[in-house]
Amino acid sequence: MKRLNRRELITATAFGALTLAMTGRGFAATTDNPYNLIDPTTISVGSMGDAKPYTFTDANGQFDGFDVELFLDVARRIGFDKEHVTFTGQDFSALLPSVANGRFDVAVAAIGTTDARKKTVDFSDGYLAGYLTVITSDAAIKSADDLAGKRVGTVQGTLQETYAKTHFTKSDIVNFPDNNSAISALNSGTVDAHFLDYEAAKQYGERFNGLHLAINIPSFDAPAGFVVKKGNDAFREALNKALHEAMQDGTWKTLYTKWFPGSPMPEQYLPK
């Protein structure tokens, strides 16, 4: 058997390593990716840029809001600083499919947990609950009965759309890709009311003098959670652990007070 000289030995070793890498066996053996992320070094987040105070982009194009700050704190607790968490904006209706299809590691946008959604994706434990609200400029709208015959806007894919189609059966439900376009339609008279989350509705009510919050509907049975790919239990469990730490040490309460001043605070998320 021919003995290889030093140069031949180095070449053979390098070729073998390259072959392992190309077949995936060598890479899998050496890469640390305990949370099964798309990129082991970075958490890729799908979100919304117009859902203030939950998630929105500021004047510099940076994502901010309650959900954003909370997730960044949770990510830090599992080993990812701010520079290794990337947010990308999408229409709400595309967020869950994008996680299910592997475009994002997680979706963060005050996404309510429902049995129907859990058929295609998994959720972290809940971290936010509140009210669904009808905002309008029509002073005659004071209850759900007053929506009969009215054109009511909802953002496609949200809990509000599902609720409106089930309960506002005498209304004409009009879908929009985001809240901004729906509010624009409301202000122009294209729709008579818009159905959205209470905190977001409050922001629009403060911004536009002609709009008021007419109807508030409790939504405590579908708390918001972080959305992860179905079956990625390691990532989901790590998020849950960090999320509960943030609740127990008062971080959640601090962020809630910052972003929702004066709003009732759900006791289930406060330190025990």
Automatic annotation (TrEMBL):
Where does the record locate the signal sequence feature? 1-28
Sequence ranges assigned to domain Ionotropic glutamate receptor C-terminal in this UniProt record: 42-262
Keyword annotations from UniProtKB, A to Z: Signal
Q: What is this protein called?
A: Amino acid ABC transporter substrate-binding protein
- Phylogenetic lineage: Bacteria, Pseudomonadati, Pseudomonadota, Alphaproteobacteria, Hyphomicrobiales
Cite the InterPro entries for this sequence. Answer: Iontro_rcpt_C, Solute-binding_3/MltF_N
Q: Where does the Solute-binding protein family 3/N-terminal domain lie?
A: 42-263
Q: Which Pfam families match?
A: SBP_bac_3
